[in-house]
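Researcher: Next entry in the queue.
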Amino acid sequence: MLIPAIYYKEEILNEFKRLFYTEEVGYYMGCGEHGLPNIADEDRNDLRQYAIVDSNNDLVGYFSYHIDFYNSCASDFGLLSFSDTLEPFIVKDVLQELDKILNVWKLHRIEWYMIGNNPIKKHYDKFCKAHNGHILKFRDVLKNEQGEYICSYAYEIIND
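Model: Structure for this entry, 160 residues:
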């Protein structure tokens, strides 16, 4: 379930700190950098930040994105699971939010980027294809700790 992140702010920041310098935070940041999210203390119309909680209201992840209502675009998505496995309800909650952006708010465009090897990639690919979106692959964008090059992907969905 998605809950406004402000309710879990300290727990979210502690989880990010716990995961510093891990591959998971690299997936969230989209690069080799590692930092803390700036969780807003007040409601902002252009920013959505969520704690992802399980049925016991325990924090299991963080999800955020920006909305540009003037240009009717959602972008700058970030998703981080705090558990060792990607729980199916996390994917379900995120995909429902993306669906809401397209079908309830009827924003014209959604765009996001992802580092290859990310475990949620197959779900994003499927969602993008289901909405007639486009996926662009950038080869050899980053080098991991093992010295292997990793691709990056750009996703776009135009809501006609």
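Model: Helices lie at 9-18, 23-29, 88-103, 121-130.
Researcher: Noted, moving on.
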